[in-house]
Amino acid sequence: MTLPETKITSSFWKRYRQLVAKSSVPFQWEMINDQATVDVANDPFAAGGSSNESHAIKNLKIAAGREKGDFFGMDFQDTDVYKWLETAAYVLKYAPDAELKKHADQVVDLIADAQEDDGYLSTMFQIEMPERKFKRLQQSHELYSMGHYIEAGVAYYQVTQNKKALQIACKMADCLYKNFGTGKDQILGIPGHPEMELALCRLYDVTQQEKYLQLAHYFVTQRGQDPEFFDKQNAKDGKDRNFFPGLDKIGNRYYYSDKPVTDQQDVHGHAVRVLYFLTGLAHVARLTKSEDLLSAAKRLWRDVVNRQMYVTGNVGQTTTGEAFTYDYDLPNDVNYGETCASVALVRFAKQMEHTAFSGEYGDVIEKELFNGALSGISLDGKHYFYVNPLEADPQASRLSPEKNHIATRRASWFSCACCPSNITRLLASVDEYLYEVHDDTILSDQFIANETYFDNGVSVVLKSNFPWSGELHYDLKNTQQQTIKFGIRLPGWTHQAYTESTKNIADVGKVQDGILWFTIGQGEASIDIAFDMTPQLIRANPRVKSDIGKVAVQRGPIVYCVEGVDNPQMLWTYQLEDKPTFTYHFDSKLLDGVGVLSTSDVTTLEVTNSSKLYDCLPAHKVATKLTLVPYYSWANREESQMEVWIAHAGD
User: Fold this and answer.
1) pTM score > 0.85 for this model?
2) CB 196 within 8 A of CB 146
3) What are the tens digits of pLDDT across the range 355-414?
4) What is the per-residue burial (b if ≥16 Cβ within 10 Å, else e) of 90-114?
5) How far is CA 20 from its chain centroid?
């Protein structure tokens, strides 16, 4: 069974998807064409450096011979175009637009012209150093860039039936199939930055060409077989020819190539690289039915989500190399939490869900969609976070060298502009994350209001005001004679506190792996389910020293934060009482409509005029109130402090 048609009716998500279509995509189009005059907030602190220029389209025109000039930008600058094209594909599916289609078709034609006859395409190498193709794979991003085109080409073909888009992707994959592998005159190597693994699987899904799956399997299983491969290739290329000085000495753990994946016990190294790799790993494991690879995927999934994931879903703790560090190391004020890493974790979770029904995968997707990933885009759709901290202070960002990567304003563009089009391609394709289907079994995984029509005569209409309300109403229609199984994920935050009622349901089964199962017979049926949305205090495992004596506040799927714009005292001086109660109200005029929490069960430390830095007297606490807003919405008003974890008087 497939998902031929899904219409999102959620007011929350319709707003975001229209924002992507009407604001983000046109703005990004102007940026990659160097046509935008942009305001760049927090200029000195933007990851990769802020930028008013992209040159990404121009690079392709130079490679295609349409213009003359020099290459400009990161060696993966092409991907800014490719992810824009992928976003455009998804937008065209739900918001058809003739002008956007015209631009996208022209981009496909340009990419075809820039591609070499053998399928190779990486404009930096074509323009500046054609003799160095595939000779410094650790840093070159050639396969990473081509992987992002393959993803875009597949998506654009699926939506528009543009055959040229798919042909370009196949030519790229054929080029790599010829050049990489264990055969004579082939490169026994791997990508420095994974992405090609998951892209080849997407291409296989569409074409059913076995060689693409074989190549994906090769890249997954070859990684770590020769931990010295990158060092040997770098030495042959020349020590003084680095694209990223220093990254040749950072060690093979950083590239997740220190050992074969079946021997890996934890995630480490560059967060986006390893999560893209694990996404490909899970996909290859499922397609090849490899128990060894699937076992590795499950083990590494557990390490990410149980020991290295922030409460908001963000991952990647350190600015040094944009990397994972070690289990339970989760600092809030210097963490990295790159937007691209959150997008990658969503992709990994979905591939794991493809392997087996389990509520834990949908829990993480939900956590990212409403918190960690969503924080990466502003409410106007034209400003973006590269880094997503859980604690921020404008003064610290300006004056502390270890915190100057923490922006307290979203920037409009970056020199390394990987995040803007990555978050928009996720939001534009969110309809692909609502259901999981295995044969005649359907799981309602995300509670975004929608109307979905399956290709076997089953339709599901979900009415909800999620994430602000936990009440869901399903209308189901089964036109086939046999029964189907229909499941509803019970979110981890409910602790299985819910009520449900049904009409014309053949059987209400048991809860299994966080999913409540129903049997649906022929005809029409309905299910009503209501999740408890009482605000909860979340505690971290005591191994997380950064969160000792603190709590986070969550209502439904939304993790909340406090901002200085709402709370006048220094945020670290507030302390919640042992058992605080919260008042909830929806404010349609605040932050484009958000649910707001407030409590009077809080004190703040009195700040006196004393000049003493230290004092042995007990601090004086003053009763006050605290206002909390959703984490995803922070930094959309005046610049101020922000914290997710709040001091707590309880044990």
Assistant:
1) yes
2) yes
3) 999 999 999 999 999 999 999 999 999 999 999 999 999 999 999 999 999 999 999 999
4) bbbbbeebeebbebbbebbebbeeb
5) 16
- The answer to whether the CB of 212 falls within 8 A of the CB of 173 is yes
What's residue 495's pLDDT? 84
pLDDT of residue 651: 62
Can you tell me the mean pLDDT for 9-29? 98
Q: Which residue has the tokens 């990004």?
A: 28
Percent of the chain with pLDDT over 90: 88
Q: What pLDDT, on the 0 to 100 scale, is given for residue 42?
A: 55
Question: What DSSP string runs through 186-254?
Answer: -B----SS--HHHHHHHHHHHH--HHHHHHHHHHHHHTTTSTTHHHHHHHHH-TT--SSTTTTSS-TTT
Backbone angles phi, psi at 266, to 5 degrees: -150, 170
- For residues 305 and 293, the answer to whether their CB atoms sit within 8 Å is no
* Region for 118 from its dihedrals, namely left if φ exceeds 0, alpha if ψ lies in -120 to 50, beta otherwise: alpha
The SS3 call for residue 624 is: strand
Task: Report yes or no: 471 and 537 within 8 Å, Cβ to Cβ.
Answer: no
pLDDT at 49: 62
The catalytic residue among 142, 195, 322, 563 is: 322
Selected catalytic residue, list 340, 416, 418, 419: 418
Which residues make Cβ contacts (< 8 Å) with residue 417, sequence separation at least 6? 31, 48, 51, 54, 80
Which amino acid is it at 643? Answer: E
Indicate if 418 belongs to the active site: yes
Average pLDDT over residues 180-197: 97
Enter the tokens of residue 163. 């055959």
| Cα distance between residue 177 and residue 504, in whole Å | 53
Give the pLDDT band (50/70/90) at residue 606: confident
Active site residue 322: yes
User: What is the side-by-side strand order in the sheet with 441-444?
Assistant: 435-438, 441-444, 484-489, 515-520, 507-512
